[in-house]
Amino acid sequence: MVRDFFGRLARLYDHPQHCRACLAEFRARYNEQRPHWGLVPAESGDVLTPADVYVLGRTTEIPRYQAWARAAQAKLEKMMEDAARGGHPVGISRASCPRPGRSLPPLEERPASSRVGKTET
Question: Do residues 57 and 41 lie in contact, with contact meaning Cβ atoms separated by under 8 Å?
Fold first, then answer.
């Protein structure tokens, strides 16, 4: 082990196979042994490893500090329920959201000078 430019310990590899073996060791440690702070189980308990969540299918809850994620999840669930009942299509297009204070009259009611590509002779 040597220190890199920032003073952190860095591993030097002897040959490509040594590098592959070290990366495989790191992946196993990171995914199977090391718990991740963001993977809080839905049922109470210690935080989970990535393998617990992505391989074994354990469910997690959204961390408390991510209120925006909770709001987005609730909005997504509501949109999916509305779509399942035959309501408005899922998603919002730019055209369906007029900008505040800028509602435009129908094209026929606009002056000819404001129409793009349409000229009156």
Answer: no
